[in-house]
Design goal:
Number of strands: 7
CATH class: Alpha Beta
Largest sheet: 7 strands, antiparallel
Number of domains: 1
Strand content: 35-45%
Structural class: alpha+beta
CATH topology: Thiol Ester Dehydrase, Chain A
Number of helices: 3
């Protein structure tokens, strides 16, 4: 068996997604594990796709969730989904190339609202409105000023 080596630090690996104006686009591929018995993407798989989109959206704003939970801004905080409204419009199938579009709709004191769309080329497959709450110790908390500043850039 061939010995595998980690990629060279000089190798330019692609980022996980990219911004275009205020929209963050995360490309992904549908795998067999994402589908149900009919061959279509299982509805809960879209939740995972959108979670990845939200995570990469925050990462692109330089918001490190591990550091937040470790107490980087005084007390440990985290972001949790408080409310989600989903419209399943069209199915995706194995091997489809999809894009998760994540957009900040509103930034509040202790929460923010995102809109997310899962695209296959020009077709909207799923659209969602998501309210994200900031919590500390299981209770609502204000979004720290440093994080708010990052999210408004």
């Amino acid at each position: 068996m061939t010995q595998h080596m980690p990629p060279s630090s000089s190798l330019a690996l692609p980022q996980a997604g990219a911004f275009d104006k205020a929209h963050f686009y995360l490309p992904l591929r549908v795998y067999y594990e994402d589908t149900d018995f009919s061959g279509s993407v299982y509805h809960a798989s879209y939740l995972r796709f959108m979670e990845r989109g939200r995570t990469e959206f925050l990462r692109a704003y330089d918001v490190n969730q591990n550091q937040l939970m470790a107490g980087e801004h005084a007390s440990p905080i985290g972001f949790v989904v408080r409310q989600m409204e989903i419209d399943f419009r069209k199915p995706a199938v194995m091997d489809d190339a999809l894009v998760v579009d994540t957009f900040m709709a509103e930034l509040g004191g202790a929460s923010f609202d995102l809109e997310q769309v899962v695209w296959r080329k020009d077709d909207v497959l799923v659209a969602a409105k998501v309210r994200i709450a900031c919590v500390s110790g299981g209770r609502p908390a204000r979004i720290p000023p440093q994080i708010r500043l990052k999210l408004t850039k």
